[in-house]
Structures are given as structure tokens and as C-alpha cells.
Design brief:
Elements lengths: L2 H18 L1 H20 L1 H29 L6 H20 L1 H30 L4 H20 L3 H32 L10
Length: about 200
């Protein structure tokens, strides 16, 4: 057996396995798009569910980190680890206790990120002028404008933006998954079995 043949067989087997489950990819993509549409329609509810879920994750992580800190209390970094666990748990508690303020805080952080990242992306692409740099400048400008719009519309934008952004992300992920399912179904057709005469 040649080295090339031994390399191709596992690859072909892996592709066939992926190809045989294209229906699952298609189903997952459709479900993601449906969930994304639900998040966009109920953006306010999706925002608060996200903030509360994030708060629970932080609280749970804080409790686990606190337990771990006390298990390693003889370690020289105990105090730093202990304070980090307390901060994580307290932040989670605040998000659960004040979800509206938590949504406003998260939206403000995202808006600031969009503004700063948009400026750096647009200016960096303008200086470097790599192939297709105009699209990167355009993307940076859109990101900057989105951040400014979010900041101008605060605190109203904090009520709907997180749920809306999650919905849009799920729709695009679902579309990509559907495209992947269609591609593997089309590119790797099922091998035909020989029928006895």
C-alpha cells in the first residue's frame, strides 16, 4: 500500500462521515435561524434572559473559584485568587439583582468596543492599503457608526440591543450551517452501490 493511499483513506472516511450527517447540519442551521428570528422579535426578553444567564454563570463560577481558593489557601497567590472569586460572584449577583442596569452596562461596553475597534480597523486599513482594504475601511466605519448610535440612544438601546445582536448572530450562523450542509451534500454525492444483475 502506498503512503498516499494510506493518507487518502482516513480522509475519505472522514468526509463520508460528515457527508452522511448533512441532514443534521441542515436541521441545526434551520433551528438556529428560527431561534435567531425569535430573539429578534423578542429582543427585550432575549436581552434580559442573556443578562440573567450571564449573571448565573458568573455567580456559579465565583462560587467554584471561591471553593478552589480555600482548597489552595497555603498558595502564595491565594489572596489574588480569593479576591477574583469574590469579584466574579459579586458581579454575577449584581447582574441578577439589577438586570436592567446590567444590560445597560454590557451595552455600553459593547458600544465603546464598536467605536474603538471601528476607528482602529478603518485607520489601520487606510494606512496599510492591503488588497481589498476598502471593504475593511467600510466595515470599520459601520462599526464606529453602530457604536455611536448605541451610545446616543442609551439607555433605550440597552433594552433591545443584546437580544437583537444575539438573534442576528444566530441567523447568520444558521445560514452558514445550511450552506455547509448543502455544499457537502452537493460536493460529496453518496456513492452508488452496484446492484446485482
Amino acid at each position: 500500500m502506498s503512503a498516499n493511499g494510506s493518507l487518502e483513506n482516513p480522509l475519505l472516511a472522514g468526509l463520508e462521515e460528515i457527508r452522511s450527517s448533512w441532514g443534521w447540519f441542515l436541521t441545526l442551521g434551520i433551528l438556529l435561524m428560527i431561534c435567531g428570528a425569535v430573539c429578534i422579535v423578542g429582543a427585550t426578553t432575549a436581552t434580559f434572559v442573556t443578562v440573567v444567564f450571564f449573571g448565573w454563570l458568573l455567580m456559579f463560577g465565583g462560587v467554584l473559584a471561591l471553593v478552589q481558593a480555600f482548597r489552595t489557601r497555603n498558595w502564595s497567590g491565594f489572596l489574588l485568587y480569593f479576591l477574583s472569586a469574590l469579584l466574579r460572584g459579586f458581579t454575577g449577583f449584581l447582574l441578577l439583582r439589577y438586570p436592567l442596569a446590567g444590560a445597560a452596562g454590557l451595552t455600553m461596553v459593547l458600544a465603546a468596543f464598536f467605536v474603538v475597534a471601528g476607528i482602529f480597523r478603518a485607520v489601520g486599513a487606510g494606512f496599510m492599503q492591503f488588497p481589498g482594504w476598502g471593504w475593511t475601511v467600510f466595515s470599520g466605519i459601520i462599526s464606529f457608526v453602530l457604536g455611536i448610535l448605541l451610545l446616543v440612544q442609551m439607555p433605550v438601546s440597552s433594552i433591545w440591543f443584546i437580544g437583537f445582536a444575539i438573534g442576528v448572530d444566530m441567523i447568520f450562523d444558521g445560514g452558514a450551517m445550511i450552506g455547509f450542509a448543502a455544499a457537502i451534500h452537493r460536493i460529496f454525492p453518496k456513492p452508488k452501490t452496484l446492484q446485482p444483475a
